[in-house]
From TrEMBL, chains A, B:
It comes from the Bacteria. InterPro entries: HTH_MarR-typ (IPR000835), WH-like_DNA-bd_sf (IPR036388), WH_DNA-bd_sf (IPR036390). SUPFAM superfamilies: Winged helix' DNA-binding domain. SMART domains: HTH_MARR. This is MarR family transcriptional regulator. The keyword Translocase does not apply. PANTHER family: TRANSCRIPTIONAL REGULATOR, MARR, TRANSCRIPTIONAL REPRESSOR OF EMRAB OPERON. Residues 22-157 form the HTH marR-type domain.
Length: 162, 162
DNA sequence: ATCAGTTATCTCGATGTCAAGACAAAGGAG
DNA sequence: CTCCTTTGTCTTGACATCGAGATAACTGAT
């Protein structure tokens, strides 16, 4: 009996008219997400980062050499609001991890690029990050992992249809 | 090829030394969580609520008659910091949905209880909420749901061990 | 009964987020 | 070439969150 069971049982008692099947699934997805976040945050914090900063640095690193994207593309790929991205870039810039430079193709825009420090930091952190992630699913065997991927895929399609 | 595949493929190209299996799972859990949040938020917003307010009202409602808990118990059950709970109670109180009253057993503490308005609101919203949740997993058949529950349970145990 | 330690809640400052609006530059129609 | 519209980014204000510290009240040992 986990925390989610506790909640669904309370609802069954108080509001027996409600079908809480979906709540069980969605509640566990939420708990799992929070557990993952919490653990991953430790890795980030050890290097002076948080999820927001890691997100931007990793997006730039993944983009490949020269590790440079416009704020607009970063927006799209990280799915945050424009003001949020301005703020993230400001903080990373004052940390010396990224640098704004002019965009020769469009002077409304900038190019945001990893600095030397930023590149070596993200390469180090992402190596630890995938190890953290691996350790969190280490107890699932190979067939579970495959099945889980499939179900998550189905659930995502179902949820994103609305 | 979904968004998570896009990211893992970028990493495979840029950092072929990394094993991104876990990233695929954890990334999909995160996407799913966000998709669920986004949809559930609509239901809350239709009634002037957000997830934070719903969380508190629902916790009080689930607790059963007389729909009253101390801030400390609310803290435990909603897993937020104490300052956060103070703020949530303040907002709900100014909305007229909950009311602080003195705790006869401990005068450091208060009792936070649903008002009439709060009770009828949360009963209405939670009814819609479970419908929203049900619709988001409606495309999964019964065997998928069962399997998914099992895997989420396993994954939770694995993740919370660390 | 007193005092030290614990507990329950609130306050405050720093962060991070979003949404709406401002502003400058680019692009297209005439 | 000139407008008008669109686009890309930043600014601002409102919230929500956390964590550390403050405060008041309870508890237990002596």
């Amino acid at each position: 009996m986990d925390h989610v069971d506790f909640i669904t049982r309370q609802w069954e008692k108080e509001r027996p008219d409600l079908d809480v099947t979906a709540m069980g699934i969605i509640g566990r997805v939420a708990r799992l997400y929070l557990a993952y976040q919490k653990e991953m945050h430790k890795t980030f914090a050890e290097h002076g980062l948080n999820a927001a900063k890691f997100d931007v640095l990793a997006t730039l690193r993944r983009a490949g050499d020269p590790y440079t994207l416009s704020p607009g593309v970063l927006l799209e790929r990280t799915m945050v609001a424009s003001g949020t991205m301005t703020n993230r870039i400001d903080r990373l810039e004052s940390d010396g991890l990224v640098k704004r430079s002019t965009n020769p193709a469009d002077s409304r825009s900038f190019l945001v690029g990893l600095t030397e420090t930023g590149l070596s930091l993200i390469d180090k952190v992402v190596t630890e990050h995938v190890q953290t992630q691996a350790s969190m699913i280490a107890d699932l065997d190979a067939s579970d992992v495959e099945l889980f991927q499939t179900l998550l895929g189905k659930a995502l399609v179902a949820a994103e249809l609305d």
